[in-house]
């Protein structure tokens, strides 16, 4: 059992706006690998060799098959207690925002409503020619790369590939939320991927209390006001329990 610091419990008591900045660590607890080269068929490829626009144009079938593989893993995985705890926080605070670097859609499936997906969503797709949307469609039966019904263009996953900009409207709105939050939780991310990592720094610069929840210390540990080391799927439900029981 974790005995939370009094200053943190005091911040929880007075807070009304929370931001959860999440990364691959929370998804790993649901069984989603980080795709850094050990996944059987794909181990001979580096992510940057597949997750970029030039690779898609050069060999769309191979890139599409990799994303189909990743989509299958995502759909077979379930949100874990950490995801559900974040979603339930919405009952106890006036404004709870998730800013995630993950593309797996697990926060939405857990019930979170206010989500900013900085790197896109693997279950969304669009035509590279006319930008028609093909979101949340089951392409698992598609052997070949699907083509747009409107113009015949290739359909690609709506995720941010290497060399591409983050969606500026999403990032700007996430920064705005971070600048106004009372507590910012860093969950399952080392905070080394920019510009996404500016989110917790923006929160800190604007007076937010920064809480890190990671397995090990990270680049953000020295910036955090409070670091909790362990599995987010265990720590976040304990924080939720403290909120529910008003043990401040």
What does this molecule look like?
It is a single chain. With 248 residues, this protein is α/β, with parallel strands linked by helices. The protein folds into two domains: 1-32 and 79-119 and 166-248, Rossmann fold (3-Layer(aba) Sandwich); 33-76 and 125-159, SIR2/SIRT2 'Small Domain' (2-Layer Sandwich). Helices cover 36% and strands 17% of the residues. It has ten helices and eight strands. The chain has helices spanning 6-14, 24-28, 47-50, 53-58, 60-76, 81-88, 106-110, 168-180, 198-205, 232-245, and strands spanning 17-22, 95-100, 115-117, 120-127, 155-159, 183-187, 209-214, 226-229. Strands 3-2-1-6-7-8 form a six-stranded parallel β-sheet, sandwiched between helices. It has a two-stranded antiparallel ribbon with strand order 4-5. Helix 7 links the parallel strand 2 (95-100) and strand 3. Helix 8 (168-180) packs parallel to helix 9. The radius of gyration is 19 Å and the shape is elongated. The mean pLDDT is 92.
SSE diagram, text form:
Blueprint: H1 6-14, E1 17-22, H2 24-28, H3 47-50, H4 53-58, H5 60-76, H6 81-88, E2 95-100, H7 106-110, E3 115-117, E4 120-127, E5 155-159, H8 168-180, E6 183-187, H9 198-205, E7 209-214, E8 226-229, H10 232-245
Parallel strand pairs: 1-2, 1-6, 2-3, 6-7, 7-8
Antiparallel strand pairs: 4-5
């Amino acid at each position: 059992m974790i005995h939370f610091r009094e200053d943190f419990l005091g911040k929880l008591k007075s807070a009304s706006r929370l931001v959860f900045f999440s990364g691959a660590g929370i998804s790993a607890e649901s069984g989603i690998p980080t795709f850094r080269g050990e996944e059987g068929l794909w181990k001979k490829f580096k992510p940057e060799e597949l997750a970029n626009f030039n690779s898609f144009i050069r060999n769309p079938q191979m890139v599409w098959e990799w994303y189909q593989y990743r989509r299958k893993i995502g759909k077979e995985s379930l949100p874990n207690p950490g995801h559900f705890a974040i979603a339930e926080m919405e009952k106890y605070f006036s404004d709870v925002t998730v800013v995630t670097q993950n593309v797996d859609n697990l926060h939405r499936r857990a019930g979170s409503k206010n989500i900013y997906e900085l790197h896109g969503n693997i279950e969304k797709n669009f035509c590279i020619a006319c930008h028609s949307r093909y979101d949340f469609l089951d392409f698992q039966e598609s052997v070949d790369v699907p083509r747009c019904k409107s113009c015949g263009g290739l359909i690609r996953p709506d995720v941010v590939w290497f060399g591409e900009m983050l969606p500026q409207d999403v990032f700007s709105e996430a920064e705005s939320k971070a600048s106004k939050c009372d507590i910012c939780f860093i969950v399952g991310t080392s905070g080394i991927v920019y510009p996404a990592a500016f989110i917790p720094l923006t929160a800190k610069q604007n007076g937010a209390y920064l809480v890190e929840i990671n397995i090990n210390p990270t680049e953000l540990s020295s910036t955090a006001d409070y670091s909790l080391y362990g599995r987010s799927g265990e720590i976040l439900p304990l924080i939720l329990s403290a909120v529910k029981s008003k043990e401040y």
